[in-house]
Amino acid sequence: MSQNVWNHGLAVLVLFGVAYLLFNISILENWNCHCYTVRVPPQLQSHIHSTFSGPVPTVHTNRTFCTHLDQKVLTEEEQEERQLLNSIAWPGPPSAVGLLNTSDPVHSRFFVLPPNNGGHRYVGDQLKVIIQMYDSKGRPKRYGGDFLLARLHSPKYGAGVTGTVLDHKNGLYSARFPLLWEGSSQVAVTMVHSSEAVAVLHRLRKERSDRVYFKSLYKLGFRSETTICNMYLPLDRGPLCDYTDRLTGEPWYCYKPKTLNCSARINHVMGGYVQNIITNKEAWLFRSGINVKVPIRASGNDTIHVLPSRPESKKLKPDTVNQTTSGYYYNDLWRPLGTVAIRRFNSSAITRCLTNKEVHMYGDSTVRQWFEFLGKVLPDLKEFNFVPKSCRSQGPFLAVDGKHNILVTYRCHGPPIRIRKVTTSEMRYIANELDGLSGGPNTVVAISIWAHFSTFPVEAYIRRLQNIRKAVVRLKNRAPGTLIVIRSANPQEMKNKVSLYNSDWFSQQMDAVLRAVFKGLDILLVDAWQMTVAHRFPHNIHPPPAIIKNTVDLILSYVCPSDVR
Hints:
alpha+beta, 27 strands, globular, 4 domains, 10-stranded mixed beta sheet, 7-stranded mixed beta sheet, Immunoglobulin-like
């Protein structure tokens, strides 16, 4: 009997002790504690359970209080990265979908909604289109995630504008267009990828950043070796040479040569594309002309008629679509909806505008197109080639018009860049190049960087843009009059297996990130995405001369808003 009393008393004492401990820790929490952990010894746990035959209060071992202090404190850039990743999150299909259940553009349809109150359509109104996706069996889809593009165009007037597509995540999509010109116009909707194909692209971007690989040549005397390079390399395949940029922290690695030192690296070149990275079932989702970039037909009439601006008394509220529409084409000429009226520049007008100015271009081949355009239209601009013919497309390039004191340069961005060959001494990061510029009111800086990041996780692209943004801010602070031009991504032709490496879905995601990163800065964004989607020409990673001319006119309209004599 005395032993039972003793056990009962001990149990009460133990429970009292635990309660007292928890009470004091709760007080410490209120004192803004840093971190306190309760660890109940195993022997005490065993004794408590053996003392009571019925249920006992749960005692959590290794429980940490002030758990918010255990979490890593994120930097502003890390917080921004999370927000950006959330902003481009894409709805995925159910885990198991049969091939005949995937989205089929042949069976899918779009419907042009009638105008409000069954009346007329006027310039300044909004057009709305409903898109219903069906599978290969002709059954309505019940989930979203398809990648669609929409365009309103008029071949008669050389007019076109991009539509804003909204995914309702139930198989239905809506596209909205601002009505910006009068006359007849036609709606066009294209399925770029099914939701099931996008899921494959999402996995490849996350897991197979090696699907494009690079090489570097190492040379010392008569000895030479070539090794594989990339932004990420498996550590179990040999020692690495670390070429992480010391100023920006941008990573780049090559496998160490067997007989040469890392310092013997002399060039960078694209190695190739890794093949057989998807299954036969997945390959069925990437058939050009069948389920990649295929038009969706209209159910009913796809043509509308627009009257001149509606009477003042019947004008509608400002259209929210116009806030996401950067401009439109009319007579094949781009008309931006921004604050600066676009001007049309011939050769002599371009010369007058750029007299006593420097134009520095950095990035990929889509900004190099601007350099090549100026070289063709300016008669007194002479190019100086300092690179061998084997590196002709890589640069760097320099052109000078001594008569009018014009300097134009181009330099490709640092790795990853898919080029035939470039010496390591010329592989430079945009952020570092911007830090070397004096800048000023007579300096124009143009940047385009997107296409070569499509095979990497978005985090790598975000980091690169953040580094460039910091350099842009530094340049604007020391030289406020510098004009910074950022070129967006653009859609392209996607035949054969191009989608697996350079899909428009990758580009669209990067385009959204780029706009968000540079939002609010004093820069000029050239919306190459909408300027390409809205145009009548087929998509091409290198837009045709007509689009290039419109982009250059847009830039020069900011450089010289009025004619220079």
